[in-house]
User: What shape does this take?
Amino acid sequence: MTDVLWLGGPPGAGKSTVAERLARRYGLRRYHADTRTWAHRDRALAAGIPAAERFERLSPADRWAAPVDELYAMALHHERGPMVADDVRALPPAPLTIAEGTVITPRLVDALPGRAALWLLPTPGLLEERLSERELAPGPLALYRRLAEVVETEVRASGAPFLRIDGGTDTVRAVEDRWARHLAAGPHAAGREERRALLREANEAVVAQYDGFFARPWAPDGRDTAEADFSCACGDTACTDRVRRRIAAADPGEPSHEDAQAGWEAAAGGRCAETETGEGT
Assistant: This one.
């Protein structure tokens, strides 16, 4: 069984940043549930889940025009929990894994307890600020607000541990303090090359997520120009850099701040399919 630290919270809570920083700092594996969105949807389709089937039948325009209750059902918030559990069970037992995502719920953690779990709950004002920064269309914005309501209700009703985020909190430090004993205990990556391999694994998951999106029959053309942010793969525990690359040209093991400093950039004119690919949820 993989050792895991669970990190949940609504969209915009800062989960991804916290998990990435701590995983890089301590040489841990990071499981980012958003990068499994399309793999999970394929499993839901194979299982005949009606909401998943309806999602695929609708065009993107019709889908996002649906009432928020229907958007929430099609998000498969709870259906994906057992899939996340299966993914995490299949991971190597070492190093320690930080698993993060909105679909990480108290119900999931009860079914597959790890070393610790924590949910990040932003104040209403901070949540609106973070969502505004994403410049979301009305449909995704309504869904993200609903997910935030559901997550907070579930966490408070279950008595699960949470950290209130108000914008003045150093969230990385706060989570690090909460998990200090577990982070120190590891197990950790054994040296720079193993840390680089973990970063490569995380970057490969990003590429797979975009490939899953562009493989949908309703997806627009654009894989050749789509861009994503990748983790710098230098393996330095103090590095926090992200490198933007075209998906089609990405080598998950190579992007680094050293490349960026040398003027290595993605081709101009690329675009990011954040909301539709499932990133950022």
Notes: The beta strands are 4-8, 29-32, 97-100, 116-122, 162-165, 227-231, 242-246. The longest strand covers residues 116-122.
